Structure formats: structure tokens, C-alpha cells
Amino acid sequence: MAKRTVSAGVIALVTYTILYYSGIPAVTQCAAAGLCCFCLYELACATDAIKNEALFTLSLLAAAFCCFWKAPQEAVLAGLCLGISIPVFVLMMVFQPRLRLNSGCAFGILGVLVCGQLRSMIDVRALPGGLHLLLICITECYATDVAAYLVGSRWGKRKLLPRVSPNKTILGSAAGMAAAVAFCLVYGLGLWLFGRMRVRFGLLLVYAIGANVLAQFGDLSMSSVKRVTGIKDFGNLIPGHGGLLDRFDSLIFVLPYTLWFCHYTGALF
């Protein structure tokens, strides 16, 4: 527990430091490129695509290039990624026992879906109030993970989806939802009271619930990949947590959802 707490503190310090300087576009682009490339490495190791040096190298170059390329119609692409990714991972959870992901094709599909969504952080930061939106995305996911782990591990009895993630409980999931929604509303209240910003609380509530559902779905999706490939964690970079995908899996669907939501419903504040 102590190791997990210290690691979480270090990751949070690095993450919020990058956020502080994210007003410089190159900082956000480099952070996105680094995250995407390392997640690709972890996926390649999980699917054995790491043995195909040509495919792996080209994938890294493509992921890095996409993070420095200004994509047209970013919100449309984000919605398209969500529309494709959600049913793909739902089907993976349903047919999990029959699937095999140890191939270059599986790696390519997973890499495109994961990196295509993680790069949305660049476009989210470019939105009006983008710094606040990114901070909400990241902190809401942290709040979900912490509350779900603390409450679920102590009091949780009934499992959420035991075939996909044996340790997650219904009570833990509910606690994660409550913590994430509470954080979003409190943060919005702080912006309204101290930042003198106009906050659309009803819209913020709808956003927070949707983002939390997708955060937990992202966690379950990566758990499904681990179950199919037969690994416990994606890596050991972060003591007590595993790899970067183990730590940032909740963000995979939240980032494109945030971009899509704010584009089609208007600014939250």
C-alpha cells in the first residue's frame, strides 16, 4: 500500500507539472507522443508484436507523428474513435475466452484505437478553458480509481464483472462514480466562486456522469486485454500499479468524450 501511494504521488506530481506548462503547445504534444509511444510498447509486449521490429518501429513513428499533426475535424474524429472503440471492447469482453490477441493485426487495431483516443488530450487543451478541462479529466479518473480501490477492497462484496476484472466490485464502482461527480461539481463551484467564471452546472453533471462511466469502461477494457493475453500487468514501470496503461487506462475513453461533448454541447464554463 505504501509503495502504491508513493508511486501515485510521483505520477500525480509529474502529471500536474506537465499540465502547468501545457499552455506551450509543444509540451502537450510531447507529453501525448511520449504516452502514446510507451503505451504502444506495452501493447506490443502484451501481444508479442514486439518481436516484429519493423511493425513496432513503424507504429511508434506513426503514433509520434499523429501527435504533432493538426487533425481536421478533431471532434468528429474523436466521436468516430469512440463509436468504433466502444463496441470493439464490449465484444472483446463478451467473447474474451475465445479470443487470441497475440498477433501483429491485433496489436495494430489496439494501437490505433488506444493512441487515436489518447492524442485527444492535445485538442482538449486547445479548447476554451482547456486547462480546466484536462485537469478535470485527469483528476476525475484519479478520484475514481482511489475511491473504487479504497471502498471496494474494504467493503465491496459483489463483483462487478468477475470474468473481466476479478477485483472490481459494484460498491467500489459506485464509490468511484460518487467521488468523480463530487469532484467535478466542487471544482465547478470553485471556478464560479473564486474564478468568477460562468459554470453550467447541469451540463457539468451530465458530463461528469458520462466521463465516469467511460473511465470505468476504459479500466475494464484494458483488464480484458490483460485477461486475453494472459498477463497480470502491462509493465512494472510504476511500482504498485504496473505500466502506464495500468495507470492511464481510465483516460483512454474520457479524453475523446470530453472533446466531443464540449464541441457539440458548448463550453462547460
Describe this structure in words.
The chain has 269 residues and is an all-alpha fold. The chain has one domain. The chain is 74% helix and 3% strand. The chain has 11 helices and 2 strands, in the order αααααααββαααα. It has a two-stranded antiparallel ribbon. β1 and β2 form a beta hairpin. The protein is globular and about 55 Å long.
Order the strands across the largest sheet as they lie in space. Answer: 1-2
Helix content: over 70%
- Major sheet: 2 strands, antiparallel
Low-confidence stretches: none
Radius of gyration: 18 Å
Shape: globular
Total helix count?
11
> What is the mean predicted local confidence, pLDDT?
92
What is the tally of beta strands?
2
As for the number of domains, it is 1
**Residue share in β-strands:** under 5%
Distance between the termini: 37 Å
Compressed to H and E, one letter per element, the order equals: HHHHHHHEEHHHH
Decide which structural class fits the backbone: mainly alpha
Compact overview of the structure:
This protein is mainly alpha-helical. 74% of the residues lie in helices and 3% in strands.
Sequence-ordered SSE layout with sheet pairings:
Layout: H1 2-20, H2 25-47, H3 53-67, H4 74-94, H5 104-118, H6 120-126, H7 130-155, E1 159-161, E2 165-169, H8 170-193, H9 201-229, H10 244-248, H11 251-265
Helix pairs in contact: 2-3, 2-5, 2-6, 3-5, 4-5, 4-9, 4-11, 5-11, 6-7, 6-11, 7-8, 7-9, 7-11, 8-9, 9-11
